[in-house]
């Protein structure tokens, strides 16, 4: 597996309306739904409890049981192209994002393609993002808070330490010496290693909006992201439609479990 690939992305789209009072109809077609859009990164088809009982995913199981399961779909094979399509609805050949975005190149989601967040903002939505972007950061204008999101907590690149939120160079070194990788994988690994010789791959990649954020240092990213998402929902005015995009980091490499799950 190369360091940034998304073998399969599972998307859970939850739509719900919050009735304003008991006198209102339960489902109002005049009020836009709140949307919570969760992406599980690198989660394979057989990595969920309803396909494989050895995998314990109680929360996903219950969402799937009360929702709609799409069991066969076509997706882009890797991370950046998938996210590109989720955000813009465009195939990657339009945006030149066919490949995983390498941290050392100035690639980005072109501004001429509006994101779903920009479109929903035009419809009056409050828009928030929590998690992994991987659609460009070489200029602030390509980052989430400039691409339609009112707020952002998370990281710009493809992978990082789940606890300390910095790029993990030793992992790439291990992969390059022990794993057979594609020529593209080699290009990626070599560019990481090249950056490391300049001391550039171990840096922190974690921000709240555009501010470098250290308050979640030591907090497992799944928990940091879930806490922020809960805070957004709790503080949200239910009269305003909410779009909350949560592309979690787990279970993407580096494979690090949370301490609370270690007994599993
Ligand atoms: C990020 O932006 C949101 C929305 O404007 C704001 O509520 C939040 O306080 C900001 N966070 C920081 C750390 O500035």
Automatic annotation (TrEMBL):
Record domain Sulfatase N-terminal: where: 33-257
Signal peptide stretch: 1-23
Entry-linked Pfam families: Sulfatase
UniProt keyword annotations, A-Z: Calcium, Glycoprotein, Hydrolase, Metal-binding, Signal
Molecular function per GO: metal ion binding; sulfuric ester hydrolase activity
Cofactor(s) recorded in Swiss-Prot or TrEMBL: Ca(2+)
InterPro entries: Alkaline_phosphatase_core_sf (IPR017850), ARSB (IPR047115), Sulfatase_CS (IPR024607), Sulfatase_N (IPR000917)
Domain of life of the native organism: Eukaryota
Record family assignment: Belongs to the sulfatase family.
Protein name stated in the entry: Sulfatase N-terminal domain-containing protein
Species, as recorded: Elysia crispata (lettuce slug)
């Amino acid at each position: 597996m190369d360091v940034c690939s998304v073998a399969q992305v599972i998307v859970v789209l939850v739509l719900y309306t919050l009735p304003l009072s008991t006198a209102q109809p339960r489902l109002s077609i005049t009020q836009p739904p709140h949307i919570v859009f969760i992406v599980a990164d690198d989660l394979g088809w057989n990595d969920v409890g309803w396909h494989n009982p050895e995998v314990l995913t109680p929360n996903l199981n219950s969402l799937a049981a009360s929702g709609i399961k799409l069991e066969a779909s076509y997706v882009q094979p890797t991370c950046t192209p998938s996210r590109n399509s989720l955000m813009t609805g465009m195939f990657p050949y339009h945006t030149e994002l066919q490949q995983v975005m390498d941290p050392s190149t100035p690639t980005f989601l072109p501004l001429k393609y509006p994101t779903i967040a920009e479109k929903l903002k035009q419809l009056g939505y409050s828009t928030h993002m929590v998690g992994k972007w991987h659609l460009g950061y070489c200029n602030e204008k390509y980052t989430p808070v400039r691409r339609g999101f009112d707020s952002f907590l998370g990281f710009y690149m493809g992978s990082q330490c789940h606890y300390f939120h910095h790029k993990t160079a030793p992992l790439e070194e291990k992969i390059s010496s022990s794993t057979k990788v594609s020529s593209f994988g080699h290009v990626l690994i070599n560019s990481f290693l090249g950056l490391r010789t300049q001391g550039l791959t171990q840096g922190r990649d974690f921000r709240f909006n555009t501010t470098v954020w250290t308050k979640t240092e030591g907090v497992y990213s799944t928990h940091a992201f879930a806490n922020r998402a809960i805070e957004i929902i709790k503080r949200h005015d239910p009269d305003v439609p909410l779009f909350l995009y949560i592309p979690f980091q787990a279970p993407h490499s580096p494979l690090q479990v949370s301490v609370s799950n270690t007994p599993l």
